[in-house]
Amino acid sequence: MDKAIRIGALISGGGTNLQAIIDACEDGRIDGQVVFVGSDKDGVRGLQRARDHNIPTFVVDYGEIIRKYRKSPEALALPQDFDLQDCLQRQNLFPEDSDSARVKAFFATRAAAEAALLAQIEPYRIDLLVLAGFMRNLTPYFIDRFNTDQDNPRIMNIHPALLPSFPGVDGYGDTYRYGCKVGGCTVHFIDYGEDSGPIIGQRCFAIEEGDSLDTIKQKGLEQEWQLYPECIQLFARNRLRTVRLTHKLDDGSLYSRTVVKILAEG
Ligand code: GRF
Q1: Helices (H) and strands (E) in the chain, counts
Q2: Is residue 234 included in any domain, yes or no?
Q3: Quick one: which H or E segment has residue 33?
Q4: Full domain range(s) for residue 45
Q5: Are 107 and 101 in contact (CB under 8 A)?
Q6: How many domains does the chain have?
Q7: Per-residue pLDDT at 101
Q8: CA-based Rg of the chain, rounded to a whole angstrom?
Q9: Taking Cα atoms as reference points, which of 145, 123, 105, 104 lies closest to residue 38?
Q10: Residue 45 domain-assigned?
Q11: pTM above the 0.90 mark?
């Protein structure tokens, strides 16, 4: 890909990572352009950041969809091509509770929201979708429709911890409470699991005696603002490849995982 890539971003909040990405596009650290910013709720600061740079925005209000479903599940129009059993089989987000009304509600409301997301995103013909503080899990319904080529994933996420430690919604909080002496952040491609996809890049920072949760978050965000643009630029330069590696363990069993190889420049 020698051309500038077209990047779409999904956010849920303040959008400081979004800002770092927009700035990196504008000053040439990323060979690309943010062509839309979508949010799962209205009124968040990140949407204003986009508007300040004349970037089109949209909102798919997940909260409203969930409320509508709670009131009357039948009133929610499910996408025609949504297959609950298929989603359940592919995405095991609730291993202890795979067949309850709660799980069905989760997938039904997400599929409705994701169909709306796909409809908004489609006209922009993007090369890469970046999740920048987007606080919703994407289901196989969305992932498979966007990642049409399994060997070339194109949804990235940034997570506030050194994965695979501390997946979930509060990476810095979990790092702090555990008493870690090092914290960090991770950029990875999305797969069906929670923060479990192939890792593209990581950065770390020391946690000192005097640090609080606030100072840890600040140190972490400062690393995120550098790491995310760097990883996006690797994608833009066509330097990321996913490969399936298999290792034989001491007990004779095999361990396989898809990992990211970073190709040399040029
Ligand atoms: C970041 O810490 C990011 O790692 C996490 O959510 C936070 C978003 O912050 N996924 P911002 O909205 O980019 O300021």
Answers
A1: 8, 9
A2: yes
A3: strand 32-39
A4: 5-239
A5: no
A6: 1
A7: 84
A8: 19
A9: 123
A10: yes
A11: yes
Tell whether the model's pLDDT for residue 25 goes beyond 80: yes
Q: What angle do CA 52, 190, 192 make, to 5 degrees?
A: 135
Asked if residue 49 has pLDDT above 60, the reply is yes
Question: Does any domain span residue 258?
Answer: no
What is residue 158's three-state secondary structure? Answer: strand
Quick one: pLDDT at residue 78?
84
User: In this predicted structure, what is the pLDDT of residue 92?
Assistant: 78
CATH code (residue 92): 3.40.50.170
User: Helix 101-121 and helix 62-71: axis angle, to 10°?
Assistant: 140
Query: pLDDT class for 48, splitting at 50, 70, 90?
Result: very high
53, 159, 188, 247: which one is catalytic? 159
Residue identifier of the C-alpha nearest atom 6 of ligand 1: 133
What are the residue ranges of helices labelled H in the chain?
A: 16-26, 45-52, 62-71, 84-90, 101-121, 140-146, 171-178, 213-236
159 belongs to the catalytic site? yes
The verdict on residue 262 lying in a domain is no
* The pLDDT value given to residue 99: 66
Q: Which pair of structure tokens corresponds to residue 223?
A: 């690393």
What pLDDT does 96 receive? 72
Q: Measuring from each residue's beta carbon to the nearest atom of ligand 1, which residues come in under 6 Å?
A: 13-18, 46, 132-133, 158-160, 185, 221, 224
What gap in Å lies between CA 102 and CA 266, rounded to an integer? Answer: 50
Residue with tokens 């899990």: 137
87, two tokens:
């989603």
- Taken as a whole, the chain contains a residue count of 266
